[in-house]
Amino acid sequence: MLINFKVSNFMSIDQLQELCMISGKVRGKREHLHISRDISLLRLSTIYGANGSGKSNLISALEFAQETIIQSIPKGYINKYNRTNKSNINNSSHFEFHIKIDKKYYSYGFEIILNKSSIVSEWLYELSTDNHKIEIFYRNLKDKKFSLGKYFINQDILNRLKIYFDDVRYQDSVLFLSEMNRNKSDLYKKKSDLSVFRNVFKWFDSCLDINYPDKVFSNYSYFMKKAYSEEICATIKAFDTGITNFKIIDAKREELNNTVPENILNKIWEKLEKEIIKSKKQNLDVDAIGVILRSNKDFYIFEVNKEYDIEIKTIEFEHGNCGTFKLSEESDGTRRILELIEILFSENNNKIYVIDEIDRSLHPSLTKQFIKSYLNSLGNRKTQLIVTTHESRLLDLDLLRRDEVWFMNKNANGNSELYSLEQFNERFDKKIDKAYLEGRYSAIPNFREE
Questions:
Q1: Does residue 296 or residue 196 have the better pLDDT?
Q2: How high does pLDDT run on average in the chain?
Q3: 138 neighbors 146 (Cβ within 8 angstroms)
Q4: What is the mean pLDDT of residues 1-30?
Q5: What is the pLDDT of residue 185?
Q6: Measured between alpha carbons, how far is 258 from 295 in angstroms, rounded to an integer?
Q7: What is the spatial distance between Cα 384 and Cα 40, in angstroms, rounded to a whole number?
Q8: What are the distances in angstroms from CA 423 to CA 43, 398, 403, 429?
Q9: Could you give phi then psi for residue 355, rounded to 5 degrees?
Q10: What pLDDT was estimated at residue 13?
């Protein structure tokens, strides 16, 4: 789970800003929290702000950090430092995460001079509940300080680590966490203290799910779980989309020619054929072989049957007595709801969904209904949802806790500042949607008449 995220010197963000998922002083709606013995974490945060306030830049900061960790420093960011201060071109940008994995807590982060794509420092600590931290590793390329902490006791592991550490000691384009997860799967076959590198990396790779308005984020995989079919139908009906049922149907390769480029189809076919050959040689289960192809308006599943034939399936929706409709025939709003429902049925209990402009293509009542459905679905799940939105109808203390509402506002210097509704200490019966639109919390457009 995400505890907090800190960032500085990135796009419109100058000084260090923090999105914190630790619960505040609010007493009500404790069912919204994931409560453990040591900490209570929010499972929802909504971020408000005017257009251009920096909400999307905060999401971009999360994505930049994730991509740098999982792959490498992405291209196109050399001018993404904060340019309101000219000296920032040579100043490092700071990205830091406090996360919870199972019952352990970690702090991981790095600093980078974006204009040079040069990593300045990187660190990983295990955090204890009494505010102590155990160093796992620390790199400071600027001061040439490098260390492996007291986390590792086994001398054989330490010797091995020092070799890996020396390989990237002076490489300012490579994160050590990334290097410890590049072509080293054999390293983690046996449980050891080294697993910390795998676990933290997997958190960024598998748990952090970042989405933009123009990015397809759901594979509709929940439709494939027959055990959920009635519940899925009931959920879809609750959103008044007109859909009364759905069915998975066979599709022919020829049918895809008008919607899927031939080169992509060929690549999918080649990949599956290689997997089939491998499966035959090693006598593997063919049920594990498959590909989901998803675009904005189409959804296809390629899977291999017991006879090793490749089958293509797609989805159709029933609208009462009006017949069946393809995904591409559904409205933008319906497709958006079908994507969001994935969050309600996800079997990955540790996902952190980050969605920029969750209200895109949705009627205001639908956005509110989805947030209600999400909060009602939580139970004991560790799922977290972080969204940016303009939908003021969510600003309702009957629906949300004060600490679940954040504002992003640009100050007089044009820099984005992030702050929580919690700091205003509003009464539970305060009409915060009205107060927000009246400008009490700033973070709204400031119109000027010439």
A1: 196
A2: 89
A3: yes
A4: 95
A5: 82
A6: 13
A7: 13
A8: 19, 18, 9, 16
A9: -125, 115
A10: 97
List, in order, residues 6 or more apart from 226 with CB less than 8 Å away. Answer: none
Between the CA of residue 349 and those of 32, 90, 368, 383, 400, what are the distances in Å? 15, 41, 23, 6, 22
Q: pLDDT tier at 447 (50, 70, 90 boundaries)?
A: low
Where do we find the tokens 């640009």?
A: 410
Which of 96-105, 216-225, 269-278 tops mean pLDDT?
Answer: 96-105
Which two three-digit tokens encode residue 212?
């933009």
**Candidates 3.90.79.10, 3.40.50.300, 3.30.70.260, 3.90.850.10; correct CATH number of 1-215+347-450?**
3.40.50.300
With 60 as the cut, is the pLDDT of residue 325 above it? yes
**Tens digits of residue pLDDT in 163-213:** 888 888 889 999 999 999 998 888 888 888 899 999 999 999 999 999 988
Per-residue model confidence (pLDDT) at position 403? 94
Residue corresponding to tokens 């100043």: 91
Q: How confident is the model at residue 319 (pLDDT cuts 50, 70, 90)?
A: very high
**Which of 196, 200, 446, 219 lies closest to 343 in space, CA to CA?**
219
Note whether 113 and 93 are within 8 A (CB): yes
Residue found under tokens 């990237």: 168
What are the sequence ranges of the domains in the chain? 1-215+347-450
Task: With beta carbons less than 8 A apart as the criterion, state whether 122 and 142 touch.
Answer: no
Nearest-angstrom CA–CA distance, 291 and 275? 11
Tell me which residue of 124, 17, 115 sits closest to 61, measured CA to CA.
17
